[in-house]
Amino acid sequence: MNTITLIExxxxxxxxxxxxxxxxxxxxxxEDRELLAAxxxxxxxxxxxxxxxxxxxxxxxxxxxxxxxxxxxxAENKNADRYRLSAEEILECVEEGYxxxxxxxxxxxGEDFSYSTEDIxxxxxxxxxxxxxxxxxxxxxxxxRDVYQYxxxxxxxxxxxxxxxxxxxxxxxxxxxNLSFGHRIKCLYNxxxxxxxxxxxxxxxxPFQTAEHLAADLLFLKELQPHMAGIGPFIAQKDSPFxxxxxGTLEQTLLMLSLVRLTLPRVLLPSTTALGTIHPxxxxxxxxxxxxxxxxxxxPVSVREKYQLYDNKxxxxxxxxxCRQCLDKRMESIGYHIVTARGDFANVSR
Length: 350
Ligand code: SAM
Ligand code: FES
Prior knowledge:
Elements: H1 3-13, H2 18-27, H3 30-48, E1 51-54, E2 56-61, H4 87-99, E3 104-109, H5 117-130, E4 135-139, H6 145-154, E5 158-160, H7 168-174, H8 181-194, E6 197-204, H9 211-224, E7 228-233, H10 250-263, H11 273-278, H12 282-288, E8 293-294, H13 301-304, H14 320-333, E9 337-339
Parallel strand pairs: 1-8, 1-9, 2-3, 3-4, 4-5, 5-6, 6-7
The structure holds S-adenosylmethionine (SAM) and FE2/S2 (inorganic) cluster (FES).
């Protein structure tokens, strides 16, 4: 096998065999990475030009019933300073975001059942009533199919649920026994069937991850055909069971972003805050490796510090307007520009 031949093959065919992905992940030189990023960028520009879509992230609760080993807001973390935003506070974030040019709002939180299915439904309906030119994305974890259907019927457009790893054996090393790999995957298929623009994804460099696991992630994405893929580095959190584990690297995350872009040419691919956390230019480099979305925070500054999934998270002290301006400048500095648009999957909207 030869890395350059494999990169060209992936560019042409948009898929490789598992052992070919493994070979690329293990053997890419610096020059190979540059070639991969250039190819990925070419593909991205053929669908999305130099536009960067922006999503306003509202982290509205850091309560969670789960205990994922990597996560800083897991239920058993007694040091997490818990908060919940009221519907009014969430709507204030939306209004501010709308004024700043956001046309997608991502409601994200731990699995917090103190908001009822109907509470979330009313919130979705209210946002859509006020701004029918906007998309509402949910990222609220695993629920039963009828709940996903109800929220879709209330007007939700998209749902983000990273699969975390496509290997059951690896999944079980990242999560306690009560969390089921099968259920998470089932949720993703349910979301797609209902009609959501669906996002899967995984952390790069999570504990115990191998090149085979990453290759399985790429093949899983190819099979699922999600509209969005969330790919960011694992970053250790000091109060979690994975405190002290090594963080995912910039190089490996950029490599995976490029491989995802070539495997799913039209996918909506964020350059994540976690990538910006491990390197000062991480988000710009992510865009240059094939990403086409950024997700700045719209949560009130008073709670930002508290949504600590991992250590040293950036942008916790900035007002929303400052974050927006900062990202505008960062994207302009590499010749890209943030657009005021819903930013649907290659112009599909419901
Ligand atoms: N509760 C929802 C769920 O389970 O999908 C959404 C919130 S969850 C905190 C969002 C994502 O954060 C997870 O899918 C995970 O990939 C990421 N995450 C959690 N801990 C992390 C860490 N230590 N480093 C990097 N990403 C992390
Ligand atoms: Fe639930 Fe992290 S353990 S959001």
